[in-house]
């Protein structure tokens, strides 16, 4: 049985995780404190994290927990944008 890693092994996985954490911090700050930053920029960061996460998981084969976080935040961004457009 393969041991599950928490931190990614690749640079792409590290960047994806850091961008995803930045998205989470900015989004919660926007909701709680109404910071003067456009939501488009925040969701752009979330989509960038999604792209990096997809590359890290499917191309680089990095299967760490911190690498799957951008996939969750990216899915949240995609569903939020789809709901806004409806």
Structural summary, described in words:
- By secondary structure, the protein is mainly alpha-helical.
- The chain has one domain (11-85).
- It is 76% helix and 0% strand.
- The chain contains three helices and no strands.
- The chain has helices at 11-33, 39-59, 65-85.
- Helix 1 (11-33) runs antiparallel to helix 2, helix 1 (11-33) crosses helix 3 (65-85) and helix 2 crosses helix 3.
- The radius of gyration is 14 Å and the shape is elongated.
- It starts with 10 loop residues before the first helix and ends with a helix.
Task: Indicate the topology.
Elements: H1 11-33, H2 39-59, H3 65-85
Helix pairs in contact: 1-2, 1-3, 2-3
Descriptive terms for the model:
elongated; 86 residues
Count of folded domains: 1
Give the averaged pLDDT, no decimals.
91
Poorly predicted segments: none
Residues in helices, as a percent range: over 70%
Order of helices and strands: HHH
Cα end-to-end separation:
44 Å
Query: Which overall shape is indicated by the principal axes computed on the Cα atoms?
Result: elongated
Rg, please? 14 Å
* Main beta-sheet annotation: none
Beta-strand content: under 5%
Compute the number of helices. Answer: 3
Structural class: mainly alpha
């Amino acid at each position: 049985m393969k041991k599950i890693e928490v931190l990614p092994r690749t640079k792409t996985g590290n960047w994806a995780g850091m961008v995803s954490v930045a998205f989470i911090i900015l989004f919660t700050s926007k909701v709680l404190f109404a910071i003067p930053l456009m939501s488009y920029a925040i969701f752009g960061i979330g989509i960038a994290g999604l792209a990096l996460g997809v590359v890290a998981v499917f191309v680089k084969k990095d299967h760490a927990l911190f690498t799957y976080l951008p996939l969750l935040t990216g899915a949240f961004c995609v569903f939020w944008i789809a709901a806004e457009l409806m």
